[in-house]
Design brief:
Layout (H helix, E strand, L loop, with lengths): L2 E7 L8 E6 L2 E5 L5 H8 L10 H6 L16 E5 L5 H4 L2 H4 L7 E3 L1 H14 L7 E3 L5 E3 L5 E6 L8 E7 L2 E5 L17 H8 L3 E7 L12 H15 L6 E4 L5 H13 L3 E5 L1 H12 L10 E3 L2 H14 L4 E5 L9 H7 L8 E4 L7 H16 L3 E3 L10 H11 L4 E4 L3 H13 L14 E4 L1
Parallel strand pairs: 3-4, 5-6, 10-11, 11-18, 12-15, 12-16, 13-14, 13-15, 16-17
Antiparallel strand pairs: 1-2, 1-19, 2-3, 7-8, 8-9, 9-10
């Protein structure tokens, strides 16, 4: 019986990732994410997320159009997000109820999803089952799902192997091979090598940096960059603000520890920051609450900033959201309320996500900071995505019969395809898919 893949969403553009794998009358869905830019634009003025119309979100391009697998809906046995980033799991709160299937994920991802469901404040009928990293779950007579631990810029990320009697489909999700991670274990390369001795029919692999030579540096390198930036920024009597991805707990851990090394009290500001920190604490990954302050809501954030200004800004290190220049973020609020002055530093421990809106917002934000005379340090960051050497290593370990690039623009997918050709793959073994394509293996 053939195994079939449907590239539901996330193949024609970045975001709203969703893939389905079918074996006869049994199927699993891998990822169910939002398109962050379009989702924020659609929902930012909506106080009641329960009132958000799912069809309107689909029409706006904010969440996947699952109609590509309407004829598979009755076959779906599990919804399996690979990790906790919203472009991979953010649509579960909206679309999961179209399928009578449980959500299977690692503990941290489960807590993040539960938080999104709570925010939406609607009944959620799908069971959420927690699977430990490197764990397995038989979801139907002929399908077993395996979570193979990997490293990425959020905890407990997994490559998902879908086992069928006729072979395996490996879905990499987002990954890099960081052998010196600051939070959690190193990637399970041993298990990937074992898969390579089995029958891997296809790998659906991210290609974000498909054209970037070398390896992506370890998070350990990012920590050293941050340490050097904080040393440069600490002028004794000034404020230091670090902005980064709220889901990047390893980076937040470095901010906390390095802030304490500089004898500053650390304060995390913002709803998104708090949400991910509390998810990490509930799953035992971190313990920030006893070591710092976490301020979640807008009115309390404003009050805290006044307290910091009164007590002495030089006593604190502030970590907050807003690194992409989002107009309603904590960082934007800090700037408009004139909390900062010409002695102060803002450190962007991130890269700008290259969408037109983000680029425009970030440029606007940096212009305003420089107009105010505030010192700005940018790109204090290392990515969570694999470069060419890691992609090559993954392919050589797994030995898939077919390679299906995902999660990358056209040039990066083309570069990954060229890499595959150099490894001996024929054009017939490389599939550059579009949204809604079906591939019979």
């Amino acid at each position: 019986m053939p195994v079939e893949i449907c590239t539901v969403s996330g193949f024609s553009e970045f975001g709203k990732n969703m893939t389905a794998v079918r074996y006869g009358t049994e199927a699993v869905i891998l990822d169910m994410g939002i398109q962050p830019e379009k989702y924020i634009k659609f929902t930012e003025d909506e106080e009641d997320l329960a009132a958000v119309n799912v069809s309107s979100l689909v029409k706006a391009g904010a969440i996947p159009d699952s109609s590509a697998i309407d004829d598979w809906a009755a076959f779906v046995k599990a919804i399996v997000p690979s990790h906790a980033h919203l472009d991979h799991c953010g649509a579960i709160a909206y679309l999961a109820d179209r399928f009578k299937a449980p959500v299977l994920c690692t503990p941290f991802t489960a807590e993040v999803i539960k938080g999104m469901i709570k925010d939406r404040d609607v009944a959620f009928k799908n069971k959420i089952s927690v699977i430990q990293p490197n764990g397995t779950k038989k979801v139907s007579k002929n399908i077993m799902v395996e979570f193979i631990h990997t490293s990425h810029s959020t905890p407990q990320s997994s490559m998902v192997a879908v086992h069928t009697p006729d072979g395996i489909v490996l879905y990499t999700g987002d990954f890099k091979f960081d052998m010196t991670p600051l939070l959690g274990k190193a990637p399970n390369l041993k298990r990937l090598k074992e898969l390579g001795n089995e029958k891997v029919l296809a790998v659906v692999t991210e290609s974000t940096y498909g054209g970037k030579p070398g390896r992506t540096p370890s998070e350990l390198v990012a920590r050293e960059m941050l340490k050097e930036s904080l040393e440069a920024a600490d002028r004794g009597k000034n404020s230091i603000v670090v902005t980064t991805f709220s889901s990047h707990l390893a980076r937040l851990k470095s901010i906390l520890e390095l802030g304490h090394q500089r004898k500053r009290k650390v304060v995390f500001l913002g709803r998104s920051m708090a949400k991910y920190i509390y998810a990490g604490e509930k799953t035992g990954l971190i313990n920030f609450s006893q070591k710092c302050e976490i301020v979640r809501y807008g009115s309390k954030v404003e009050r805290k900033l006044k307290e910091i200004a009164k007590a002495g800004k030089h006593r604190y290190l502030i970590a907050c959201t807003g690194h992409q220049g989002e107009p309603k973020s904590v960082l934007s609020s800090i700037i408009t309320k004139n909390f900062l002055d010409a002695r102060d530093y803002v450190i962007f421990s991130c890269k700008t996500i290259p969408t037109p809106t983000n680029i425009s917002n970030r440029e606007r934000l940096e212009r305003e900071l420089k107009r105010m005379g505030i010192h700005v340090l940018v790109d204090v960051h290392q990515s969570g995505h694999a470069a060419q050497d890691e992609l090559r290593e993954m392919i050589e370990l797994v030995k898939p019969a077919m390679i299906i690039p995902s999660h990358g623009d056209a040039s990066e997918k083309k570069a990954l395809a060229e890499l595959a050709r150099k490894l001996g793959y024929k054009d017939s073994q490389i599939r550059i898919a579009k949204d809604g394509d079906r591939i019979i293996l």
